[in-house]
Amino acid sequence: MDLLGDQAVLRNNALKGKTALICGASRGIGAATARIMAKSGANLILASRNESQLNSLLKELSELGNGHHQTLVMDLENTEAIAGCLQPILDKGPIHILINNAGGPPGGPLLDASVDELSQPFARHLHAAHTLVKLLIPGMIAGNYGRIIQIISTSVREPIPNLGVSNTLRGAMASWAKTLSRELHPSITINNVLPGFTDTERLGSLAQSIHERTGQSIEAIHDGWMSQVPIERLIDPLETASVIAFLASPAAGAIRGVSLPVDGGRLRSI
Question: Which of 27, 60, 69, 131 has the fewest beta carbons closer than 10 A?
Fold first, then answer.
């Protein structure tokens, strides 16, 4: 598939004139989303704690589209500092698109987790997302255009074994977004994308965690995952990013408050 070329989901200028803040942009689905949106003409603010990876991505994006891009080194767990990081950017104009995306917590049974191990992920995900929305909403309303998209997990629909803290967190994020979908200005949409088994470093670290805990081989773990997926392969991050970019586009203005799986058919629920 050439999802950055002839098979791209959006035409080259579909997001022209729109500014998008992509959290967790340095790798994985976040970086893939940056590539797709850059190709679609958006101006990007690439946010992450990893400055070197952001700079590498920034150089790559210069060859995709005609947007103006910048990096933003920001720690989502430090919600008190988020406003200070963003205000100089907001002073120059609104951010039209917000991609809430952050690394998930370590795997393991929920009963093995301490209260502190619950608190930190909630700060990085839910608290940060709420802080960002409150900061960006005025500009979205003023510009009569807003798209808020959470990259969550299929565990919103069906909890995944050995991801106890993550399952709990993702459910809270989905409920938060659905609540906001009934409160936001008519020009603003909010939706969730639920990735399945996607070919990212995060999935590799999860396989390693299961291997260390159970003794299963990495190959056996991978085969077990693929047995659950009708398309019988991992999902390319660019496939997930293409769905995110569509939801961020003007064409998706009537889609609001949904949680959309991109999982190769793994979920058994309707």
Answer: 60
CA pair distance 269, 262, nearest whole angstrom: 13
pLDDT of residue 5: 81
Residue with tokens 């619950």: 118
User: Residue 80 burial by CB count (10 A; 0-12/13-18/19+): exposed, middle or buried?
Assistant: exposed
Is 205 within a domain?
Answer: no
Task: Kindly report, residue by residue over 136-166, the tens digit of the pLDDT.
Answer: 999 999 999 999 999 999 999 999 888 899 9
Give CB contacts under 8 A, 24+ apart, made by 54-58.
54/25, 54/26, 57/25, 57/26, 57/31
- Residues contacting 269, CB < 8 A, separation 6+: 157, 158
Count of structural domains, the chain = 1
Which CATH number goes with the domain that contains 91?
3.40.50.720
Distance set, CA 252 to CA 14, 39, 145, 180, 249 (Å): 12, 18, 11, 17, 6
161: domain range?
Answer: 19-199+237-262
11 assigned to some structural domain: no
Residue 135 falls inside a structural domain:
yes
Question: Comparing C-alpha atoms, which of 205, 229, 219 is closest to residue 108?
Answer: 205
Angle at 82 between CA 21 and CA 183, to 5 degrees: 65
CA-CA distance, 132 to 117, in Å (whole number)?
23
How far apart, in whole angstroms, are the C-alpha atoms of residue 31 and residue 159?
A: 26
pLDDT digits (tens, 9 = 90+) for 196-250: 999 887 888 778 878 888 888 988 888 888 889 999 999 999 999 999 999 999 9
Q: pLDDT digit string (tens) for 95-143?
A: 999 999 998 888 889 999 999 999 999 999 999 999 999 999 999 999 9
